[in-house]
Design brief:
By secondary structure, this protein is of the alpha/beta class. 40% of the residues lie in helices and 21% in strands. It contains 20 helices and 18 strands. Strands 14-11-13-12-16-17-15-18 form an eight-stranded antiparallel beta sheet. Strands 1-2-10-7-8-9 form a six-stranded mixed beta sheet, sandwiched between helices. Helix 8 packs across helix 9.
């Protein structure tokens, strides 16, 4: 059986629409991992994904009657673009059923290639049901995104190129996996030509249909499928792909959303390309696997399988990246509610790089501060910091792995000005983004003024921005302004800002 697949792979026709993509070194990632890391750049295809390979190889083998009738596909986006490109090249009419959750960039790209888009369902599996109905109603040929020998053979040409481009057999190859077409095809070819190479499939932990099937010894259907890595949001691995994966793949692992986001950043830093979440899966797996098994000095490659993501999703990816790398810790710390307590807390933290502060006066007894801190992966500095804070009498809660805190609470901390803090004055302040600047700001204020509101988030810009509220008696307001002027940071009073008054100021019941 393997021999017949090798022949099918070597005879695959893909280069009318696909291009041979480079196997690029990743020097920064290599240095961090202690291994020689390579990236197979399928994000550089004309449709920014490897999917055009399998789609074209399937459609070029259709008989004349099928070509005249037209084709239909169900896809979260990348296979859709591959089918649309192949149909355009071959002069075949195409309908693409896409989940309504598909990023708009993928929907528009399919339409631009001349295919008709039908939005239906929330996942690939629901879209596939609609596509099957179109096959029955209109006599269209269904182009499966992964569970078809011609599609699998087309995707396997990625491995053919990899073997040709590498100077010798690699120690490890990491491949992303949704329904299994790319993993099955590449593994089948690599196992034949590089029998000693370890082949590792990588899935999102909230869409691990292959790992679940391997654990149970049969294909299973997941009840729910996470949609963050939409290109791999598949509830059940294909029948043929599962058979090939069981024969040729050494292991299948999962990675978290945060780990995927961190991998997007790693790819960007080495290539200046922005991978989509599914496109960064294999890199996330490579990083996790080498750390888990303490691998060093090996040569390994990972597929960068796609770059079709909505631009506005980058905000979320960036937010989660540092936590995914274990470079940011998120803590909730309870401090005394008295003048100078906030500054004392910052002194306890020391010269660590603060990524975020959220605080709002709650009661006269105590205050809770939501703080993000830069940490070094693998060391015990965070544990040491928490011990130090507890020894100083602070109550500390580690929220680094708390999804609710990371997704929601960090953006919701606040509330209206309580009645017991007197008149509040609010300033917006800019300061140079460097370690120690925040503490310098607090030291300039001294212990004269009680801080009632504080928000800061590091956005990677040259200047940091703070929103700070203080309880300042009327007779000391001139003193406060002089302190701010001496500091030299630009500042603006926002006490009359309508947004502040609407959401944070004292409720006006007049």
């Amino acid at each position: 059986m393997a021999q017949s697949y090798i022949k099918r792979i070597l005879n695959a026709q893909v280069y009318d629409v696909a291009r041979e993509t480079p196997l690029d070194p990743a020097p920064l990632l290599s240095a961090r991992l202690g291994n020689h890391a390579l990236l197979k750049r399928e994000d550089l295809q004309p449709v920014f994904s490897f999917k055009c390979r399998g789609a074209y190889n399937k459609m070029v083998h259709l008989d004349e009657a099928s070509r005249v009738a037209g084709v239909v596909a169900a896809s979260a986006g990348n296979h859709a673009q591959g089918v649309a490109l192949a149909a355009s090249k071959l002069g075949i009419k195409a309908k693409i059923v896409m989940p309504v959750t598909t990023p708009l960039i993928k929907v528009e790209a399919v339409r631009a290639l001349g295919a008709k888009v039908v939005l239906s369902g929330d996942s690939f599996d629901e879209a596939a049901v609609r596509a099957a109905a179109l096959v029955e109603a209109e006599g269209l040929t269904f182009i499966h995104p992964f569970d078809d020998p011609d599609v699998i053979a087309g995707q396997a040409t990625v491995a053919v190129e990899l073997v040709r481009q590498a100077s010798r057999p690699l120690d490890y190859v990491f491949v992303c996996c949704g329904g299994g077409g790319l993993l099955a095809g590449m593994a089948t070819y690599l196992r034949y030509v590089w029998p000693q190479t370890k082949i590792i499939g990588v899935e999102p932990e909230d869409a691990a249909c292959v790992q679940s099937a391997l654990h149970q010894g049969r294909r299973v259907t997941l009840r729910e499928v996470g949609l963050f890595a939409d290109g791999c949001a598949v509830a059940q691995v294909g029948k043929e792909t599962f058979r090939l994966i069981r024969e040729s793949v050494d292991d299948v692992m999962t990675v978290s959303t945060d780990e995927i986001c961190a991998a997007v950043k790693d790819i960007f830093e080495d290539t200046r390309a922005i991978a989509e979440p599914a496109g960064a899966l294999a890199v996330a797996g490579m990083k996790k696997y080498t750390l888990q098994y303490s691998i060093s000095g090996a040569t390994m490659a990972a597929t960068v399988s796609g770059a079709n993501t909505n631009f506005d999703r980058l905000r979320y990816i960036s937010e989660r990246t540092e936590i995914g790398e274990r470079r940011e810790a998120v803590l909730s710390v309870t401090i005394p509610e008295r003048p100078g307590a906030f500054r004392a807390f910052c002194n306890a933290i020391g010269k660590r790089n603060v990524t975020e502060f959220n605080y709002r006066y709650e009661t006269a007894a105590a205050a809770r501060v939501f703080v993000g801190l830069t940490v070094t992966p693998g060391d015990d500095s965070l544990d040491a910091l928490q011990r130090n804070l507890r020894e100083r009498g602070y109550r500390v809660l580690d929220l680094t792995d708390n999804e609710t805190a990371k997704l929601h609470l960090r953006h919701m901390i606040g509330g209206r000005q309580p009645d017991d803090i007197g008149e509040e004055i609010v300033f917006r302040v800019e300061f140079p983004e460097r370690p120690g600047s925040l503490l310098q700001f607090l030291n300039a204020l001294g212990n004269e003024f009680s801080i009632t509101l504080f928000h800061y988030r590091n956005h990677g810009a040259a200047y940091g921005r703070i929103l700070v509220g203080m309880q300042v008696p009327p007779g000391k307001r001139a003193q406060l302004r002089k302190a701010l002027l001496r500091l030299g940071y630009p500042f603006w009073e926002e006490s009359d800002n309508p947004a502040y008054l609407e959401y944070l100021g004292r409720l006006n019941t007049d």
